[in-house]
Amino acid sequence: MMTNNTTELAPATTMTDTGLLILRIAVGATMIQAGLMKAFDFGTTVGFMESGGWRLPKFAAFMVTASETLGGIGLLFGVLTPLAACAVIGAMVDAWAVNVSADAFWSQPFNVPFLVAFSAAALLFTGAGTLSVDHRMFGRSRAPVAIAVGLLVAGIVVAIVTWIALNGTNPIHFTAPKG
């Protein structure tokens, strides 16, 4: 008795695409909410950057607000997903650094930026799936591996360079900083 393997594989593909959609909605909505909070209270965002010792606090606040909001929109709809994931990874590496910079790096909660950065990295490598603008408009559901790796590295490098250039401190401490 022969079976048709195509029909047996279709539900698995549909379930994977549904799972990617759920992940994109969760990460995208999280980032949009974080970005819009900063956008609607931009003065407080700038003040937070100033109080944290950031150089060019308005520029830093704009960068994080734009990265979170636009990256979130991109992930939510699955549009330019690799670039959106790269922006979110960069923003979350710096958010993690903000959380751990005031104390020993293991003593402060860093679970949200950590989880969001890794979720964005997962989407960078898996792609947005067939239930996405990327698939509908561009006929692709994921980027080639070399581009995904390059964008992961770029997101991390941009976060580190941004931190060094605009904050100028080492965020990782094994003991609480003096002061």
TrEMBL record:
InterPro entries: DoxX, DoxX-like_oxidoreductase. The chain crosses the membrane at residues 61-92, 112-133, 145-166. Keywords: Cell membrane, Membrane, Transmembrane, Transmembrane helix. Its main location: membrane. It is found in: Cell membrane. Pfam families: DoxX. It is a multi-pass membrane protein. Belongs to the DoxX family. This is DoxX family protein. It comes from Mycolicibacterium mageritense (Mycobacterium mageritense). The lineage of its organism: Bacteria, Bacillati, Actinomycetota, Actinomycetes, Mycobacteriales.
